[in-house]
């Protein structure tokens, strides 16, 4: 078998997919019983080129390959320029028995090191895999656990989660552990799972747009009960109204759902829901809601009204603007 040196720059925020890849690489390279002798790991300022050279120059122990894992090196930022240059030079002559995994959240694509890895080795981006991939993963999990759940309920669960696979799986495992009768329902999801503040504000604004005052105020009440800050709720509510204005504007310019989702950088399904909401408002009404958010912010900062009450009044005003 012909061997060659490998270096992989692993980028992106999807820690789950990245960790899966790292573990698979370990399983492929490291021989059982000799793992510790052929594996080296360093993080942040522990990553020193002189130390790496010593590791690299030592031959594998009863194995064809050695694996080096480096995390958050700082080599792709200005702060460690000298070490970065030494590392880049070292990559030019890696022995064939070496595989290096470099785990970074982001990297300056203009840097010499980035360009060297791109031209001679590989760069892999780990981003959120998307709704359908997550649904497929959960369907398989439910099948393995003997749990019943329909597709509509799965979509409800995923769409109420942040784009973070680790978080989604953590909440999913809570569901599996606490549900009764071997079936996952919307009611179980609502009672067991913790939705992000962004998700709950999205749902709040959706209820406001539908004119469902009781449900909107109930959502707000639950957020306060879970100790969410009225200021944080206000900020996200204002942001949601601003997104609605942008969506309405882009739709008026002739853009379709996919184009709008790409431009605003939101999931396709979220834009579809927002489009249904904005049809209930005129541009003038959305502008008035944004002004009401600014006025509420001023009231909060001056202390002229109690914070919880301030945001409740804003919600009532928004409900009165529903078309």
UniProtKB/TrEMBL annotation:
Residues in DNA polymerase III delta subunit-like C-terminal domain copies: 198-317
GO biological process: DNA-templated DNA replication
Annotated ranges, domain DNA polymerase III delta N-terminal: 8-126
Keywords associated with the record: DNA replication, DNA-directed DNA polymerase, Nucleotidyltransferase, Transferase
InterPro entries: DNA_pol3_clamp-load_cplx_C, DNA_pol3_delta-like_C, DNA_pol3_delta_N, DNA_polIII_delta, P-loop_NTPase
SUPFAM superfamilies: P-loop containing nucleoside triphosphate hydrolases, post-AAA+ oligomerization domain-like
EC number(s) given by UniProt: 2.7.7.7
Class of enzymatic activity (EC top level): transferase
Catalysed transformations (reactions): DNA(n) + a 2'-deoxyribonucleoside 5'-triphosphate = DNA(n+1) + diphosphate
GO cellular component: DNA polymerase III complex
Single GO MF annotation: DNA binding
Homology family: Belongs to the DNA polymerase HolA subunit family.
Protein name, entry field: DNA polymerase III subunit delta
Organism annotation: Candidatus Cellulosilyticum pullistercoris
Gene: holA
């Amino acid at each position: 078998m012909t061997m060659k040196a490998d270096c992989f720059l692993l980028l992106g925020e999807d820690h789950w997919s990245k960790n899966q890849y790292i573990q698979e690489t370990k399983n492929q390279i490291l021989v059982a019983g000799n793992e510790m002798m052929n594996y080296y790991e360093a993080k942040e300022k522990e990553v020193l080129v002189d130390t790496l050279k010593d590791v690299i120059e030592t031959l594998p122990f009863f194995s064809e390959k050695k694996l080096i894992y480096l995390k958050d090196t700082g080599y792709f930022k200005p702060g460690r320029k000298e070490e970065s240059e030494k590392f880049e030079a070292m990559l030019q002559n890696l022995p064939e028995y070496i595989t290096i995994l470099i785990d970074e959240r982001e990297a300056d694509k203009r840097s010499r090191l980035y360009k060297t890895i791109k031209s001679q080795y590989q760069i892999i981006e780990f981003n959120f895999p998307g709704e359908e991939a997550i649904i497929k993963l959960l369907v398989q999990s439910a099948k393995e656990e003997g749990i019943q759940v329909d597709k509509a309920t799965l979509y409800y669960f995923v769409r109420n989660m942040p784009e973070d696979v680790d978080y989604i799986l953590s909440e999913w495992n809570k569901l599996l552990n606490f549900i009764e009768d071997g079936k996952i329902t919307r009611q179980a999801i609502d009672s067991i799972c913790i939705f992000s503040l962004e998700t709950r504000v999205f749902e709040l604004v959706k209820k406001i747009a539908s004119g469902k005052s009781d449900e909107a105020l109930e959502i707000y009440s639950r957020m306060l009960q879970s100790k969410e800050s009225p200021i944080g709720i206000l900020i996200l509510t204002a942001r949601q109204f601003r997104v609605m204005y942008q969506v309405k504007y882009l739709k008026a310019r002739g853009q379709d759902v996919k184009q709008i989702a790409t431009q605003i950088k939101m999931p396709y399904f979220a834009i579809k829901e927002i489009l249904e909401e904005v049809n209930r408002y005129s541009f003038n009404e959305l502008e008035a809601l944004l002004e009401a958010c600014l006025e509420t912010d001023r009231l909060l900062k001056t202390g002229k009204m109690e914070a919880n009450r301030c945001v409740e009044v804003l919600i009532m005003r928004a409900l009165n603007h529903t078309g």
